[in-house]
């Protein structure tokens, strides 16, 4: 069984139910209608010579075309390859060279990358969503007669989807999601996020739509620019929530928070579940949204590309004590670990070849490592496994790179990136813990070592706290802190250090 099996089951059992809507087009596809498009696309791809195992680079935003393409490739046993189009030229080049590509499918704008990247130009089959000279017009597959093809038998360990890490700490790593992995991830998400057929989800994260289609849910792609979450029109987003009678909504904290100013006591909505993840979910953000949505439950999710989810919590689990702890540099509460995952906290500085058991290096505050069936076992060709995977105690453990600890109730707290910890005299400073404290006081900050000093980089005036007591030696003011392009939620420390370099 895999996600295609579950999708086909929904096509048989609820053919007329809404599967996918695009607000920008005012159009909706039923499960039967989407299935017909998938069959047409699969037949077309087969005509073009795409077979099981072939890599297909996809640069298509969330749309009917994206999910038609994905499901058609799954039906053929081909491999969908995704690269963040906002990445640097060097990053894109490094990603493309990881896996052999048979075809490239992109919107017209995406094909501009061919001008600066010869690796994309050399992909044998070039397809465009719409007409573009010297490329195949993907949309023509819906105009021609087709013959339904048999679904290719895929094994559990066959790759289905490849994405790439950001490469912020080195070269990008190719995360290979097999058909079995996607199924297990769906099962875990479905259980912990309470998926149910016929629910209506405002979808902002591409991979979650696949889970929705497996669950028999209705996914709505909102009429906003999801590539720029900090600039999303919150009213337009809320309008779609109301129009489609959405019961679920989720995305990065920055994106979800866009609707908060537009919610009033008179707002008529059907939301029961709101999820935030992909970046820090601060008490202030989750509390303010929950106040505006008294009949809904607001959740924070903690996870990563390699392990989604790890832990979760609801706004109602935020006690005054937890908020006080966040305000006292004790880190950010991320909730109770899900039952399907095992977590340990280790002193990674002591992780050597001589360690025979993780019991030897477990500690109170240290790096978070995880193991479970929905945790990625390794990267493509093993590149990155040595640095990020631990084979010990008969299990494969994934190093999240995050620092954290368990409180006395067995609940997980996040301290930020383990590699970012700062040794200042006899103190160990975790930048994120201090940044979280100052965020709750109204300041956007980053704590780094700059020119040999522990420096607080702030977007506003110096915070009214005892900086020296925190071990901070200097405050530097900047117009804005650079953040990750995908979610606009995490500090881009590499870009920040570049920003602080002396101007020549």
Question: Could you give a quick summary of the protein structure above?
Answer:
With 504 residues, this protein is of the alpha/beta class. The chain has three domains: 18-173, Rossmann fold (3-Layer(aba) Sandwich); 222-416, 3-Layer(aba) Sandwich (Rossmann fold), CATH 3.40.50; 422-499, GMP Synthetase, Chain A, domain 3 (2-Layer Sandwich).
What name is given to the CATH topology of the largest domain?
Rossmann fold
Total discrete domains:
3
The major pleated sheet works out as: 14 strands, mixed
Helix content: 25-40%
**Low-confidence runs of at least 5 consecutive residues:** none
The value of Rg in angstroms is: 23 Å
Number of strands: 26
The CATH class name of the largest domain reads: Alpha Beta
Portion in strands: 25-35%
Briefly note the structural class of the backbone: alpha/beta
Shape: globular
Q: What gap, in angstroms, lies between the N and C termini?
A: 59 Å
Could you report the average pLDDT, rounded to the nearest whole number? 90
Q: Name the CATH superfamily classification of the largest domain.
A: ANL, N-terminal domain
């Amino acid at each position: 069984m895999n996600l295609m099996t579950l999708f086909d089951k929904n096509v048989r059992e609820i053919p007329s139910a809404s599967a996918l809507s695009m607000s920008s087009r005012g159009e909706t596809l039923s499960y039967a209608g989407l299935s017909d498009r998938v069959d047409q696309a699969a037949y077309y791809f087969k005509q073009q010579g795409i077979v099981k195992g072939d890599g297909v680079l996809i640069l298509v935003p969330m749309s009917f075309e994206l999910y038609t393409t994905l499901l058609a490739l799954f039906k053929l046993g081909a491999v969908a390859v995704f690269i963040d189009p906002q990445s640097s030229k060097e990053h894109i080049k490094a990603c493309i060279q990881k896996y052999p590509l048979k075809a490239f499918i992109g919107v017209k704008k995406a094909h501009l990358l061919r001008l600066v990247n010869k690796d994309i130009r050399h992909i044998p089959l070039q397809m465009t969503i719409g007409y573009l000279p010297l490329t195949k017009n993907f949309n023509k597959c819906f105009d021609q007669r087709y013959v339904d093809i048999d679904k290719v038998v895929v094994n559990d360990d066959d790759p289905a989807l490849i994405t790439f890490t950001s490469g912020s700490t080195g070269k990008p790593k190719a995360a290979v999601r097999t058909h079995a992995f996607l199924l297990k991830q769906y099962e875990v998400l479905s259980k912990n996020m309470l998926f149910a057929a016929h629910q209506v989800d405002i979808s902002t994260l591409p991979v979650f739509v696949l889970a929705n289609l497996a669950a028999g849910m209705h996914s709505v792609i909102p009429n906003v620019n999801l590539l720029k979450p900090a600039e999303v029109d919150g009213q337009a987003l809320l309008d779609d929530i109301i129009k489609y009678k959405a019961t679920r909504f989720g995305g990065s904290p920055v994106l979800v928070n866009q609707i908060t100013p537009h919610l009033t006591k008179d707002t008529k909505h059907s939301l029961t579940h709101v999820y935030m993840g992909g970046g820090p979910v601060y008490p202030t953000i989750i509390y303010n949204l929950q106040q505006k949505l008294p009949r809904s439950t607001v959740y924070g999710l903690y996870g990563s590309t390699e392990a989604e989810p790890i832990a979760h919590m609801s706004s109602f689990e935020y006690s005054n004590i937890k908020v006080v702890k966040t305000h006292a540099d004790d880190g950010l509460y991320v909730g109770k670990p899900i039952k399907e995952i095992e977590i340990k906290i280790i002193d990674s500085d002591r992780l050597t070849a001589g360690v025979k058991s993780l019991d030897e290096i477990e500690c109170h505050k240290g790096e978070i490592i995880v193991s479970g069936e929905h945790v990625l076992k390794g990267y493509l060709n093993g590149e990155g496994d040595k640095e990020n995977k631990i084979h010990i105690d008969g299990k494969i453990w994934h190093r999240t790179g995050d620092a954290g600890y368990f409180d006395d109730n067995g609940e997980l707290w996040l301290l930020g990136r383990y590699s970012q910890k700062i040794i200042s005299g006899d103190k160990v400073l975790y930048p994120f813990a201090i940044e979280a404290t100052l965020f709750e006081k109204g300041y956007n900050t980053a704590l780094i070592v700059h020119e040999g000093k522990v420096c607080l980089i702030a977007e506003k005036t110096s915070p009214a706290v005892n900086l020296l007591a925190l071990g901070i030696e200097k405050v530097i003011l900047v117009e804005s802190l650079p953040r990750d392009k995908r979610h606009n939620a995490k500090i881009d420390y590499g870009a920040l250090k570049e920003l602080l370099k002396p101007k020549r």
